[in-house]
Amino acid sequence: MSSSVVVITGGAQGIGKQTAHVLNELGWSLLLLDLQAIDVTIYNDALSLVGDITSEAFVQSALEATMTRFGRVDALVNNAGISCISAALDTPADVYRKVIDVNLVAPFLLAKAFGKVMVDAGSGAVV
Length: 127
Known about the structure:
The chain is of the alpha/beta class.
């Protein structure tokens, strides 16, 4: 049986990067999604895609790449997130919309796409 496969958003730094390291050490294969390139040579079995997780087209291409490379998805870690630390009176609506898109819409799109694969397989986890 092939190793378990996890998709991690925001995998280039911080909690996402550490999660990738821990799971990879435990034998998981990785699909890392981020806005910046990730050096996957530090992992045993990993693929990195650079793109915008708020884009349905990017999420679909990430799903296709995952299935082509690994043939399965066992877990999705919705780690990517952004914030806007400013007074509401000073915050443009487009900035606030980006926060909503990254923190709420993207996890929905990812869970919808990758979740279908997990439901069809009869197992999986979304974090």
